[in-house]
Description:
There is one protein chain. The chain is 30% helix and 27% strand. The chain is of the alpha/beta class. It is globular, with a radius of gyration of 23 Å.
Amino acid sequence: MNEIPENATQTAIMANGRSFSYNELQTAAQRFARVLLGNGADLAGARVAFMVTPGFDYVRVQRGIWLAGGVAVPLCTTHPLPSLTYVIEDTQAAIVVVSPEFESVLAAYVLEHELRLVVPGNDDLVTVGVLPTVPPSRPAMILYTSGTTNLPKGVVSTHANIDAQVSMLVDAWHYAPTDQSLCVLPLHHVHGIINVVTCTLRAGGTVAFMPHFSAQGVFDWFLDMAQQPRRGVFMAVPTIYFKLIAHYDTLPNDQQQALTAAMTTFRLMVSGSAALPVSVMERWQTISGHRLLERYGMTELGMAISNPYRGERRAGHIGQPLPGVTVRLADEHDNDVAPGEAGEIQVKGAAVFKEYWQKAEATRAAFTTDGWFRTGDVAVLDDGYYKMLGRSSTDIIKSGGYKISALEIEEVLRTYPQIEDCSVVGLASDEWGELVAAALVVGQEATLNTDELNRWIRDRLPAYKVPRRYVIVTELPRNAMGKVTKNDLKTSF
């Protein structure tokens, strides 16, 4: 994970108006490893929690932790203190690394609990001595799941797991030294850490950081990339693409044309971490010339299924298993489902995580007796491509004896002229088991007649899939990766 390309003077990181070469990154990471080690020889799997601004410092700190033999535990820079302390306490982190701008958030807590506080600074005077040899089987990182129903669980990935995730994607998505990727994603999730930063650097490319998202800032980078010899790579969640489209629509025609021309020079654009609405995919293709590559992954396994780099990228589908990943669809008894039937996505492969941190029972429950990881996501195999139906706990609604995909209903609702966005949930019902309900975001000037909407949707969906309750909301509650938090949404009804 710390390879230096043949041209070590090539730019690895661009952040805050500065460029850093691979040589500078490697040297800085080694020096920070020595800072962490102090007089010791090996952190030997000690957990190091870090709350560091995205950019050069983030990457050198993360790599320094790995070089010192520690386990990297990235903290979300926007989470409240109780969420941060939960992760620190759950992982039993003895060392906490914070950027100067976050010292005020955690310093008092670290002092009170007698932990070691490290603030990245000028480590140029640190002598780089011998660093430990870290076996691939050793844990490298703990990332926390969303925790939609219970407290978040720590997902432990080894160095070997991460290497498998990165190697697979570099080959499948054709990363190259000529790539320049823009990181606008939070760096406590696998999407930003692996897909954007680690894969790009593994290939010898350049990562540009934008710590605070702005649609105009992204567009300015697009325009700048069109003038560079490097090929642009952009990865985001559907919410970001939705915001970019909305901003694009406010621009004058000449600026729109310039942006479209700039985006056609890009090598690759990817969407993930939440279901990509077909309407967003089609609109983005119109304005950018790119058919977004949609893929499927999880904190526990990195990426597992993807539309092809070359070949048909099918709207509404997550694609086919990536090389090195074995996928099956299974019923509630872990038996393979019949062709064409919906089932839980179950995965095997070297990229699959080691365990949930200090949760042996949860780890056992996550795997079948013969080693398949149960994702909890439901899909169907449609003419060779997997089509996601939703999360079994939140997106599969059991109503009147039917199993209904909330995602399918959402796709139809989004095509209604007055609806800008929506989310469908199941509400507890004594009569139906669950009642199909839809939260709708409508345009500021729009008026919505739900009786007319119901008549319209009945021409497009069977009666049992038609929502029985609606609520109009100004926005949908989302987590840091843009996924709608449906359990929070249910309170709107």
